[in-house]
## 1
Amino acid sequence: MEEARQHPALSPAPARALAVAAALALAGGAARAADPAPIAVPSGQPVTFLDTVQGAPGPDGLTVRFRFVAPQIAREGGSIGAEQALSDMQALCDGYALPRLPRGGPVPAQVIISLADRPVAFGEPDPDATQYFEAYAVADGTCQRQDF
């Protein structure tokens, strides 16, 4: 797991991205959170959904990113370390992201879960923010952690 590392977007695949966006909308995976209620994670920290990004392909092709705010991972004043954050990201992938992936159409090659201690615009650097990213492949109905 790496802190504050973002991958540049690769060349867009507009037709596939549009298909995934439509499927996510139909599956209830809107681009913005409708309910800012905290999501339960193993560490017990308050995690809220920020947004879903599906228009920026990842290194393995079609990628869906689920972004969350987790204030307790902050470098200063936070109480959640990298190992606990990793467990939380696995739980978010299995329990939050998987049910919101499209059921038909193109299947994402990768799901990326990110935690940030504050909202950060996608693709924008924020050296003051603490961020964790983890990549997963979906296999046998679960998220399988990948090297990122």
Note: The CA atoms of residues 66 and 93 lie 8 Å apart.
## 2
Amino acid sequence: MDAKRQESQGAEREPLLSRRQAAEYLGVSSNTLAVWACTRQYELPYIRVGRLAKYKRADLDAWLASRTVNPESA
């Protein structure tokens, strides 16, 4: 198995965070995440597992990075 395929399988196996855990990680309430998902206010990826929403930490980190503002260019 090549290294690229092993990396992608490792990323797929990362533990999924509950909405509450993801909210704590981002510093917002779980209700805020629910509203964002419902209204699609932000493009924050999540995975539906039945009626539950699960989040990958890598997706949360990428979303945070995309929201970073450089004060010199703002």
Note: The beta strands are 16-17, 47-49, 52-56.
